[in-house]
Amino acid sequence: MAGVNAARKCASNGWEVSIVDALPYGGTCALRGCDPKKMLRRGAEIVDAARLMTGKGIDPGDLKIDWPDLMAHKRSFTETVPDKMESGLKKAGVETLHGKVRFANDTTLEFEDGRRVEARRFFIATGAKPRPLDVPGADLMVDSTEFLELPELPRRIVLVGGGYVSFEFAHIAARAGAAVTIIDRGERPLKAFDPDLVDLLLERTRAAGIDVQLRTGLVSVSRGSTAYDIRVETDNRERSLACDLVVHGAGRIPAIDDLDLGAAGIDRTEKGVKVHPHLQSISASHVYAAGDAADTPGAPLTPVAVFEGKVAASNMLKGETTAPDYTGVPSAVFTIPELVRVGSLEAEAKEQGYDIEVNWTDASGWYSQKRIGETHAAAKFVYQAGTGRILGAHLFGPEYAELANIIGLAMRLDLTAKDLKKMVSAYPSTGSDLGSLL
Q1: Which residues of the chain have pLDDT under 70?
Q2: Is 342:400 a contact under the CB 8 Å cutoff?
Q3: Quick one: CA dihedral 240, 245, 248, 249, positive or negative?
Q4: 244: which of 160, 207, 222, 411 lies 20 to 30 Å off by Cα?
Q5: How far apart are CA 305 and CA 310, in angstroms?
Q6: Which pLDDT score is estimated for 225?
Q7: How far is CA 357 from each of CA 344, 348, 351, 410, 413, rounded to the nearest angstrom?
């Protein structure tokens, strides 16, 4: 999405622009990530909602997910994306190219078939790919892309890693009837999120029948006659897990290894192309980068890639050095319910030198949860002491991602908690809870 937005902006200003992708147009989010994942989550939401209302007027009976039908529903969205995206780019005056490329020199890209394209400027927005795992049998694992294309859901699934991918897929697969295990070598999963809320999510995850095994590392994967044998290690003791599918959820890295950046004099780090705050390469002034392929302070999120792409394009066009504003960007783990973060964690705010006040609210017994039978909901706000200025907001509960959007806007506009509490909301709605949570 960084590339698409930059290409459109440059073309609309009269530049001659080409864009190239080795995969169908649309990017990770629309085709292999956020959007299809949430299409599948809808089935899980319905099953979970019915179960929560058991004994409260709803009999879920034999309600279940028909995985092939749910997957067909997902494809009804994803299959239309590439043509729409490419035709929109062409209409905007952008030449659309296909194939793998690498830098032949600082002004030339070369395709695998030998074709070459020359340009005065380059914008790198190749996204991310699964982190290679150095364990025997790693090639037997499927990644997130393959999981989102499963024609049938296997009976037993092991997800490796304690991040977004593992938890979101686990919540979907468990509601679809699979026996799901998450293994994570750390003491606590989802390290980017508030630890108290992560604890609540773990309770809710285990209550959904998902086996979360912490301090457990992957040793090897092998294929047996009827199942996979997963060797894991916990507290220096090895043991085996049997399953029908192993999913890689152990992180992603910038997808720039095949670009031969050195041929164009482009410096990089483990986090991506090394750029100035205004997204220009520090070593090659005619190159810009954004999104997951760039080493920036921005989180690896689609909205961040979008606004980085727009800022980079504007800087290229005007010769300016404007840096993106990362204030108030929400990040959500779309489990059931969702876990959300905006701004700083408690520990981060202290490290930044702030004198802080923390407000914790257990909202599990509130009307909004009672209405739908939800058992877990809470919020933590981190304020600059004495000012009501929101430094961080952390929420776990149904529809709380929408609350995070409001909070994120407030932070970007430098509104205080007092300012936000002036909002008059439709009642009863999740938004009407915000004042009390603050």
Answers
A1: none
A2: no
A3: negative
A4: 207
A5: 9
A6: 87
A7: 13, 13, 14, 18, 20
